[in-house]
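If it is no trouble, might I ask you for a protein's amino acid sequence along with its backbone structure tokens?
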Amino acid sequence: MSDKIYSSRAPEPVGPYPHARRVGNLLFLSGIGPRERGSNKIPGVELDENGNILSYDIEAQCHSVFRNVRHVLEEAGSSWDKIVDVTVFLTNMKRDFPVFNRIYAEYFKDNQPCRTTVEVNALPTPIAIELKVIATIDEE
């Protein structure tokens, strides 16, 4: 049995999927990006008139994506310290990994989940980072 979870605080999914699904005591989050809820605004991103990225601030996107992940976790009944696995998608590993890694270390001082970081050619919206997270959740 699994339960679909939709957050009222995280950005709306860009496709037909929930923010997360609960299976037993595990919570599987869909890919979460830095977009702001209720808009297409992406912190730190400047687009041209055709929607192409002119510039972006990876630091602003990192803080925003972590905030969005936290929203989903909390609304699902989990928390940041219950994250057990993180998959990170970056669109420019060479440029962005050092900044991402520094900010990641700030957020995960106490809890250090398993992590995989991969570079991808593109993400579904003009973002530079997306996180896929697995956390535990207390049994009801």
User: Anything to note?
Assistant: Strands lie at 2-5, 20-23, 26-29, 45-47, 53-56, 83-90, 114-119, 129-136. The CA atoms of residues 78 and 137 lie 5 Å apart. Residues 2-136 form a domain with the 60s Ribosomal Protein L30; Chain: A; fold (CATH 3.30.1330.40). The chain has one domain: 2-136.
